[in-house]
């Protein structure tokens, strides 16, 4: 009897253990089904060991000529904190650690000033004499990416990318190709600002390397801080550029409490008479391949390239100054590339087409797409969230106010009349742009539904269903071609101040993440 009892007990125990294992596996699978997967290297901008880089582009997303003594316009600030239990030198700071009480942290930079100063003049000594000033910048981005690289699954990643661009174009110099083909000089016209020879210069970029400070109010806490700033006005007094009238200026400063919360990226952008069309974005770019608008191999933060419809983008945005009526502030800007026949881009600028879509939240931006006279600025159709598609001539149902404009790729052969071709010069290749405005039709995707939402003194944390929205948007493809899978190698936000001088924009971005949802 005893024996039997024991046997029964042990088989009961075996059953319990077996049952518990099954339960754990079952709960585990439930959790993983619902768990969010981030597509980026630093989900929510929480990682103390920052990785950030900056790039500057001219009107056609190239360099053409470096700014004097500034090197190639690619710079990076990447560091790791080294903890140790002893005070080693003055660079050390003390911070509380719940386990060891006080620990010294030392900030170790991975990119030094020599790396950041690398210029086309160094190409020969680096064995890169075959590169020109444009391809050298692309090479430098890969080099900095290599120095900053973080091993991760499914892919290593590099850095956040701050992007600067000036829209000046010297049309008499024919520097930018037209839809990816060599262009002819033409007289300066109102579309393109230019004050004369050299108007497409790269900005001067200055770097405040990240440092660790003790917190002013809480001496036991430490703060991390760094930044880039500069101007396009090459003759400006940099110490006054921020406040001086008619002097272009940009700055991005990042700061964070050590071990806590998100990085805050504080942006400032100011235009001048000579540089009235400027852009400043914070981008999460793909870590390999070409990204939206950039026809060279790129480095970035997106260790997985998000694919429609399966991703969301989350971030906090605090707009403090709007940048004037022509500031096209992009709550969200997504960039991709595919050919009109549905093939993926391969770097052939004559057939690759950049595709952009942007949600503009400046309430001053009006809908230009309308059925009376400007149908050519409307996409051919709108698809509602429930899948119903309405043609732009259906005046009763088409949501005209949801669109700022649509423009078509300059190399598209079968466009529906009437249409407008996008700027043929402002990209290394042809481009297509679809700009949307706050409207109830986008509410389904978590986007603003009313003008003014998320604008000045209305800071918000957004969770945008960019994946599902971007699946539903109209983009051109040749009739009969297989609809492409839409991958988005560049996801960014920031402002494009369009041709207006002495405008000032200021905003703060934090908590950024791209979340991949299950297929
Ligand atoms: C700033 O400069 C512009 C261009 O020279 C000028 O029109 C404007 O009046 C100036 N503004 C101030 C406040 O001085
Ligand atoms: C889909 O939504 C649109 C706009 O709300 C509406 O007009 C249409 O009737 C809906 N279609 C279906 C099939 O529910």
Automatic annotation (TrEMBL):
InterPro entries: DUF7705
Pfam families to which the protein is assigned, alphabetical: DUF7705 (PF24804)
Span of domain DUF7705: 38-516
Recorded superkingdom: Eukaryota
PROSITE patterns: PROKAR_LIPOPROTEIN (PS51257)
PANTHER family for this protein: EXPANSIN-LIKE EG45 DOMAIN-CONTAINING PROTEIN, NEPROSIN DOMAIN-CONTAINING PROTEIN
Protein name: DUF7705 domain-containing protein
Organism of derivation: Capsicum annuum (Capsicum pepper)
